[in-house]
Amino acid sequence: MNPSPDLLDLPPLGAGQFAAIEDQVAALLRTESDVIIQQGEALLPLEAAIRSAVHPGSTALNIVTGPYGQTFGHWLRDCGAKVVDLAVPYHAAVSAEQVAEALRAHPETEFVSLVHAEAATGNTNPVAEIGAVVRESGALLMLDAVASVAAEPLRTDEWGVDLCVIGGQKAMGGPAGVSAVAVSPRAWARITANPAAPRRSYLSLLDWKERWTDAGRTVLPHAPAQLEMLALGACLDRIAAEGLPAVIARHRAAAAATRAGALALPGLSPFVPDQRAAAPVATTLRTADSLRADELAARLDRALPVQAGGGALAAEMLRVNHYGSAATLPTVLSVLTALATATDADPAPALQAAQLAWESAPAPEPV
Q: Is domain 244-360 annotated with CATH 3.90.1150.10?
């Protein structure tokens, strides 16, 4: 199969177009801070943010509500920081009071890392409340918003997020090969003063600041990932055309319909019991002891957005990914039908419950 010549013979992506896409990302994140788009999956700016802002001997509060928090802890320790892990069960959210208590116990904390929505475990954390607590302490707040952006409200500046990292491959419905980080003036000041911050490196945010942002965004530091950047611009245009409130409402409706339908199926229950802590990007389901999640997932059509949990959760947790183009009622109904068939259950009650939940979902609200 020959590649399409339309994709091979595109005119070069210029600095102006690259900067315009950065501005679209800034608008999506509700931020006036600098946005740096990086040419790689979101782990790149996440690691770059940690290594840029954290220095040996500093103290970092690492909030662990899922597997990515564990990864952040490894990077923080590798930077020479004293790491305080605030871990909560993967089926729950962390509270602002828990964060405040940890900061009171460690007033020397300079950096806090938090995941907004954990797609791997299906929970979401109250960033607005946590951001207020962290800002009062004087620490920087880094937020992994890869799974939450475009699935739930994200007000970077209002919530006091200093380093906000996103990727386009989940609720945005875009590419995985580019990602972005919004960097607040407070974060730039800390990074600039950090002698351990990477320089002349793919992980260097300072290189981008000096060679791109501070230089007026007129000459790109290196050749951009053209197709991925165009795809990112296209998905941002699509979100703007649908309207961000409508996109968020669609994800919430998909989550409500999936949860309601799953409750009507035998052997399945929400992995995150408190619906207020459940992420709209993915619904995780606990299987009964007699029903292994990985074996159930193996019986389903691989085209469906369903998979078993990772690692130790493979036997007991199913993850239904209803994000991006999958955040639709037909997709939810297809998943529920497949789950019912695989468990020899009548799908009708689940489909009726899902349909009602979708129709009862709140209308789009200003974000």
A: yes
